Amino acid sequence: MTDLYQTQRAMRNIRRAAMQRGVIAILDIGSSKVGCLILRFDDTEGLREMEGVGSMAGQSSFRVIGAATTRSRGVRFGEITVMNETERAIRTAVQSAQKMANVRVDHVIACFSGADPRSYGLAGEWELQDSVVSEQDVARVLAACEVPDIGDGREVLHAQPVNFALDHRSGLGDPRGQIGNRLSCDLHLLTVDAAVVQNLIYCLKRCDLELAGMASSAYVSGISSLVEDEQELGAACIDMGGGATGISVFMKKHMIYADSVRMGGDHVTSDISKGLQVPLTTAERIKTKFGGVHATGMDDREMIEIGGDSGDWEKDRRQVSRTELIGIMRPRVEEILEEARARLDAAGFDHLPSQQIVLTGGGSQIPGLDGLAARILGQRVRLGRPLRVQGLPQAATGPAFSSAVGLCLFAAHPQDEWWDFEIPAERYPARSLKRAFKWFKENW
Amino acid sequence: MRSLEHAEHRTRQAPRRDPAPSRIAYRLHRLWLTPFVRMALRVGLPAFVLAFGVGLYLADTERREALGSVYTDLHERLKNRPEFLVNLLSVEGASPELSEAVRNTLALPLPQSSLDLDLEAARARIATLSAVATVDVRVQSGGILQVVIQERVPAFVWRDAAGIWLVDETGMRVAEVSNRNDRADLPLIVGPGAEKAIAEARQILASAGPLLPRLRGLVRMGERRWDIVLDRDQRILLPVRQPVLALERLIALDQAQDLLGRDVLAVDLRLQSRPSLRLSPYALAEMRRLRGIIPAENEL
């Protein structure tokens, strides 16, 4: 645990150094595409001073100066399976983004959708020694949270304190300096498969990039595609990616639950490929061009040339009606949404005051998806697009880029995580000079 | 058959190119985007190559000398063009002796290029000659070096222990003469410090009109006042202040009473309120005899 704590702290320091230099790269490693955005931060000191949400939701401090996407290779279910291929894809994206930005980036913040995220809610309590809450008390209450058995080979990706309570007053954002007797906190812990993270780190290292932060793509696409009141009142974001569908639930501007379904648009494509006996690339083209989930009478008459390169005239001149295509796609989309529904139900989403669900990601562009989703997920469903950020090219403003854009916002305004707080004095190694110094500082 | 051939051709000719940059290309691109490297390659390297090449070329002594000789050759050729040659030295406004002295002083090897002439130095050298008041040196068209000289005009003959000099109105020596009678037309002044009070001497001479035929010279006494020496060894001792006024009074007296025609050795005007006369011994005795004053005869 301390090991992870140190790694995360190191990444935080790298991120801070990168912000000082003013340039940082965003890398969204998805199953269908690898996207790279390069951000330039204009005033780093203004960022610290800002209270609450700044102008333009805090995006005025950075600008996208380079953007590139490339077809993802060697990634399945949001996890790296063939490292060489993924490395090449990352190199392609990073190089063309660098070329556009005309600047060299060394620090990168990455997000990925797979690695089987699991969400835990933790609670901790601490009796205050003197009735004022100090930073040490916050550290101690975080340390007092009982960590569940997260399992072998898993790592903590996010550990965010979502709520502080002092005696009977709950919902405190920052309890420091307040007076009370008993401080308690709720912590949201997100764990992922350690091997996936290791692979990612290794892959970025081979590209001469330094990792300055990691995030779950479900979380960051929630940041970018949920509007402020949805984040405040409670909403779920369903990020329908290529290989995995991420689910994140937000409440009071904090993520309280995240999960992922290991199914996505690639499965729809492979269904089409199998059903129509066409190669995957053709299936992908047919899906994006003619796909849908609601068949109408018109669709019976709309014939799609599916073609082929076999040389057999009969095979190369095949046609299917759009209804048939929809008939192949719809069950799979329904399955994905039902799976997401099941995950949300398991997380207790129906107890939230607001039941808003936002669909985003590349898969959400299927025509008629909102109607289908409303049947499965409830009435309050909308299609989400990411926020607009400065300098983002028009081509990168679609819902497929919601996690990349969310990662930009995450880079500019990271959520306080467990490792951003101080270490409680008791946890310091013995004979630490720092500890003695701290004791002096507190008592004199 | 054709389509098969076509397909085969395509697979052989255009294998799907990997869009990903190779590791080396990626690293080189990143290196190129590094500001320091970029600067060094775009500015540093050309500058280095240029400096190195020039240095390499100049490292050889022969080449350096060749470059130098090319320069001097060009310079010589330009200098020796007939347009720049000076053939003649003309001296204007000077007496023949002085112009000879000027020629000797300059000692220019003519013909010479005007680019080599140092006119300022030549001017300074000519100005050292004592007979020259102002000098102007210029190169005229047609290859003539013109020296325009204004000579000092001798105004007095000044005799001191070292010799006899001609001095101009400002007291500067013009020339040495062997005999005072070489310039009998000029008045004589004598005594140390005389040349410093030339202006006063001129005023005295100007107002000494009636005395001029008898005047032999002016003597500077103790570097503060003038004596006028007339023939018959008569002296007029002028005061330090307002000598001209005193002299005019004396001349008026002389014209009224013919004072200087009498047997007087000196007229002492040093005290304005009490001018006094020094008579010759004979005249003194005679005057006393006329007045009936019998001086007491003593050994003195």
Question: Can you put this structure into words, describing what you see?
Answer:
The complex is a heterodimer of chains A (444) and B (300). Chain A starts with a helix and ends with a helix. In chain A, strands 3-2-1-6-11 form a 5-stranded mixed beta sheet, with helices on both faces. In chain A, α12 runs parallel beside α13. The longest helix of chain A is centred in the last third of the chain and has 26 residues. With 444 residues, chain A is α+β, with helices and mostly antiparallel strands. Chain A has 15 helices and 18 strands. Helix content of chain A is 39%, strand content 26%. Among the domains of chain A are: 75 residues, Dna Ligase, domain 1, CATH 3.30.1490.110; 63 residues, ATPase, nucleotide binding domain (Nucleotidyltransferase, domain 5, 2-Layer Sandwich). In chain B, α8 links the parallel β12 and β13. The N terminus of chain B is likely disordered. Chain B is of the alpha/beta class and 300 residues long. Among the domains of chain B are: 70 residues, Roll (Ubiquitin-like (UB roll)), CATH 3.10.20.310; 136 residues, Rossmann fold (3-Layer(aba) Sandwich). Chain B is built from 9 helices and 14 strands. The longest helix of chain B has 24 residues. In chain B, α7 runs parallel beside α8. In chain B, the strands form 3 sheets. In chain B, strands 8-7-6-9-10-11-12-13-14 form a 9-stranded mixed beta sheet. A 3-stranded mixed beta sheet of chain B has the order 2-5-4. A two-stranded antiparallel ribbon of chain B has the order 1-3. The interface between A and B is medium-sized, with 16 and 15 residues.
How would you summarize this macromolecular structure in one to three sentences?
The complex is a heterodimer of chains A (444) and B (300). Chain A is α+β, with helices and mostly antiparallel strands and 444 residues long. Helices cover 39% and strands 26% of the residues of chain A.
